[in-house]
């Protein structure tokens, strides 16, 4: 939310332990334990 208004397309931040990384025709996916598969392009930081 920004200024009390919902922002279209915004996603909440989350974190999880990386279980594995996989590649396919659509690109690279990071598999997060308990959260499922996420596009690598959506990852902002890995600690």
Quick overview of this protein structure:
The protein has strands at 18-24, 27-32, 36-39. It is mostly beta strands.
Question: Would you mind describing this structure in some detail?
Answer:
- Helix content is 0%, strand content 36%.
- The protein has 47 residues and is mainly β.
- Strand 2 and strand 3 form a beta hairpin.
Describe the SSE topology.
Elements: E1 18-24, E2 27-32, E3 36-39
Antiparallel strand pairs: 1-2, 2-3
Uncertain stretches:
none
Radius of gyration, CA atoms, in whole angstroms: 13 Å
Helix content: under 10%
Helix vs. strand class: mainly beta
SSE string, helix = H, strand = E? EEE
Strand content: 35-45%
Distance linking N and C termini: 27 Å
Q: What shape does the CA trace take?
A: elongated
Strand order of the biggest β-sheet: 1-2-3
Give the strand tally: 3
Largest sheet: 3 strands, antiparallel
Number of helices: 0
Please tell me the overall pLDDT. Answer: 87
């Amino acid at each position: 939310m920004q200024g009390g208004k919902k922002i279209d397309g915004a996603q909440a931040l989350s974190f999880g332990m990386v279980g594995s990384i996989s590649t396919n025709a659509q690109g690279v996916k990071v598999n997060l334990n308990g959260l499922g598969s996420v596009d690598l392009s959506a990852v902002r930081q890995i600690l």
